Amino acid sequence: MELQITDVAFGGKGVARANGKAVFVPYVIDGETVSANSMREHKKFLEAELESIVTASPHRVEPRCPYFGRCGGCVYQHIDYEHQLALKWRQVKETLRRIGGLKEPPMRPFIPSPIEYEYRNRITVHVREGVVGFFRRESNKLLDIERCPIALNDVNARLVELRESRPRDGHYTLRASAGPRAFTQANDAVAAAMLDLVDRLLGSASATLIDAYCGAGFFSKRLRGRFEKVIGIDWDQHAISVGREDAHENEVYIAADVETQLGAQLRSIAFASSEGNSAIILDPPATGLSKMILETLIEHQPAQLIYVSCNPATLARDLAALKESFRIDSITPLDMFPQTAEIECVAHLA
Fold first, then answer.
1. Fewer C-beta within 10 Å: the chain N or C terminus?
2. What is the 3-state secondary structure (H, E, C) of the chain?
3. Whether 310 is catalytic
4. Which of 22-26, 70-74, 174-178, 207-211 has the lowest mean pLDDT?
């Protein structure tokens, strides 16, 4: 088929139409004309594989990684960085419209990564029968990887060491530093920009901060100096113990189920005289917020709510439930993972 690519969908595949159906093609750019082979036909759409570029986009560049197209990690190395950001910004906006029912989402400009390659401070590689690497695209087979161009040089040095050690089958997380094995953001520069953003968005809030899904206190540690009390909640007991190690007197870290503990904490804060100056930060996994947490937030509304999301679709779904009780002030996308389809967003509700 010869196809006109009209858009790039969330996840990285180009969108075209043929015979009344949408066609999804990887490694293309909006505005291109391509030749593609139909691979799988579904009821409402087709999946195709790129055969050749008939008319190339001016945004097309040469990928830096020899594994690009075979590795399941990066999907945008063929697109210049400015256009990657434009595509992702549009994907977030359309997702908020389609799933969240927000006609005009209050989108702010993308916060880019200052580094397009060599930014990841950790990677997880897999070992199976002597093969050390990442999963192939849309497969559970492994691709042998000697170096990952989006990882820091120190991380790639760990990869060399691992490969030389002839490791057993399993999963190995390789880190640039030997810090605690608690969750941290993978891009240090964008993580710092995210902290600055959240600090600004919270304005004058200074009474109680509840940091749900807090990990080892990524947000709490930055914000503890401005709040009278900080309560971090996470199910990961190891991360909570790391958070407690250098906790100040106004910090409390609770290892518990976020659903039940968040409700208990909000009920107690509701009787505090400073409740109008309280805030909640939510940084859930990709599955988003449960129905119970959404109901708790609506019943016990904080003065401010910061929702940090790694999945625009579940963010949009949850905002659709929250928008009847909260005002959605802003949604800021951040590029934590250049060259990939991943998008972080920070939503501010009041």
1. N
2. CEEECCEECCCCCEEEEECCEEEEECCCCCCCEEEEEEEEECCCEEEEEEEEEEECCCCECCCCCCCCCCECCCCCCCECHHHHHHHHHHHHHHHHHHCCCCCCCCECCCECCCCCCCCECEEEEEEECCEEEEEECCCCCEEECCCCCCECHHHHHHHHHHHHCCCCCEEEEEECCCCCCCCCCCEHHHHHHHHHHHHHHCCCCCCEEEEECCCCCHHHHHHCCCCCEEEEEECCHHHHHHHHHCCCCCEEEEECCHHHHHHHHHHHHCCCCCHHHCEEEECCCCCCCCHHHHHHHHHCCCCEEEEEECCHHHHHHHHHHHCCCCCEEEEEEECCCCCCCCCEEEEEEC
3. yes
4. 174-178
Name the token pair of 10: 């969330």
φ, ψ of residue 194 in degrees (nearest 5): -65, -40
C-alpha dist (Å) from residue 45 to 50, 118, 123, 137 = 16, 36, 34, 20
Summarised one tens digit per residue, pLDDT across range 109-157 is 999 999 999 999 999 999 999 999 999 998 999 999 999 999 999 999 9
Return the C-alpha torsion angle 80, 84, 87, 92, nearest 10.
Answer: -170
296 residue type, one letter = T
What was the pLDDT predicted at 179? 65
In this structure, are residues 210 and 231 in contact, taking their beta carbons and an 8 Å threshold?
Answer: yes
Retrieve residue 111's tokens: 């916060």
Which pLDDT score is estimated for 271?
A: 45
Q: Which two tokens stand for residue 77?
A: 């190395």
**Could you tell me the two tokens for 6?**
């009209």
Direct distance between the N- and C-terminal alpha carbons of the chain, in angstroms, rounded to an integer: 50
Identify the residue whose tokens are 């595949």.
13
Q: Which of 148, 214, 310, 345 is catalytic?
A: 310
* pTM over 0.85, yes/no: yes
pLDDT at 236 over 60: yes
HSE toward the beta carbon, residue 173, CA cutoff 13 A: 13
